[in-house]
Structures are given as structure tokens and as C-alpha cells.
Design goal:
Blueprint lengths: L10 E7 L15 H9 L9 E6 L2 E6 L1 H11 L5 E7 L4 H10 L9 H10 L3 H12 L3 E2 L7 E2 L2 H11 L1 H15 L10
Helix pairs in contact: 1-2, 4-5, 5-7, 6-7
Length: 189
């Protein structure tokens, strides 16, 4: 049988009450109360990732997930609330800092178009309304510039969220009336 251990981290998962987690390592960025408050507004239990914890000398040091634990503690109203933790038992402080610093090195963030299309597939109403409105002008939404294709997806969502349906409708009407779907009129610039 083949040994795959060098491809799988030596971890286990536990639910640990937030009060039993320590998050004060020097290598972490400061806790952002604004980020916590924004996440609380959009709280979704299914979006919570396991917290990465290094268990050293019986202490559970959080090295990724300090915002997660603050969000859950605030939403639940208790530091007794447990969170799922991915526990590393064999790390030292320098290993933790290295993992923290480099864990996102090869992660490619989602583009606005990719997020929009996933929201369409999920049946989320805001994106469906925007898509129907765009298509009512014989335009489409796409990832790259082309005649009649809007690739400024984040701008569509921002206008709709900040100003509402009617302002987005008027904006699209003006763009189509003025530039008639010209390839350079519907991009992010």
C-alpha cells in the first residue's frame, strides 16, 4: 500500500469552546473590528471555516481564525460557544508563523465574474435580477470584453446595491443608447 502521509497534514479536528482558545501571536495581523462587524451582518453558519490551532504545552494557540472566533462569539453571545478546530500537535511558534505567512501564497482569489456566476447558480435573487435586467437590453454578462458584453460585474452589483434597481436600469439604458454596446463602453474602465 502506498504511503500518502507526506501529502496529508498530521491534524485532527475537535470542537473547542472559544474561551479555551488563545489568539495573541505577534505574527498575526491585528483584529479588525470593522471586519468582524461586517461579517456579523452577513453571518452564515455554512461559511465558517475551521480554526487552525497549534496545541503546545496544553494551550490552544489560534494561528489562523482569530476573526472567525470573534464573529462566532459575538453572534452567539458567548465565549462558551465551541468552534471546529483543525489541531496541529507538533508545531512550534516558528512553524505556526511560517504556515500563517505562506498559507495563501498559491491561492487564486475569485474574480467578480466567477462570484457572480456562482451566485446565479445558487439562485441568489440579487444576481438573478441584475442578469435579467442586463439581458432585457440584449446585453450579456461575461468575463472578457466583447460587443454587447458587460464585464464590469462588480460595478453592476455596486450600482444595484448602493442605488437600487431603477438607477441600474437608467445606467444601462444610457450606456446602450449612447454607445450601442460598443466593446469599450461596458468594461470596468
Amino acid at each position: 500500500m502506498q504511503d500518502f502521509s507526506r501529502f496529508v497534514p498530521n491534524v485532527h479536528f475537535e470542537q473547542i469552546p472559544i474561551k479555551n482558545l488563545v489568539s495573541n501571536q505577534e505574527y498575526q495581523r491585528p483584529l479588525s473590528q470593522a471586519q468582524v462587524e461586517k461579517a456579523i451582518e452577513d453571518f452564515d453558519l455554512n461559511q465558517i471555516n475551521p480554526v487552525k490551532v497549534s496545541r503546545r504545552d496544553g494551550v490552544n494557540y489560534v494561528f489562523n481564525g482569530q476573526h472567525t472566533i470573534e464573529i462566532v462569539a459575538t453572534v452567539s453571545g458567548s465565549r462558551e460557544t465551541p468552534v471546529w478546530c483543525m489541531i496541529y500537535d507538533s508545531l512550534d511558534y516558528k512553524n505556526e508563523a511560517d504556515i500563517f505567512a505562506n498559507q495563501m501564497k498559491h491561492v487564486r482569489p475569485l474574480k467578480p465574474y466567477e462570484i457572480f456566476m456562482a451566485n446565479i447558480e445558487a439562485g441568489n435573487e440579487q444576481q438573478l435580477v441584475i442578469k435579467r435586467l442586463v439581458e432585457s437590453y440584449s446585453l450579456s454578462i461575461g468575463p472578457t470584453k466583447a460587443y454587447g458584453v458587460i464585464c464590469a460585474v462588480a460595478t453592476l452589483e455596486r450600482i444595484y446595491t448602493k442605488y437600487g434597481y431603477h438607477v441600474l436600469d437608467r445606467t444601462l439604458r444610457l450606456c446602450v443608447g449612447t454607445w450601442e454596446g460598443d466593446i469599450d463602453s461596458l468594461g470596468a474602465n
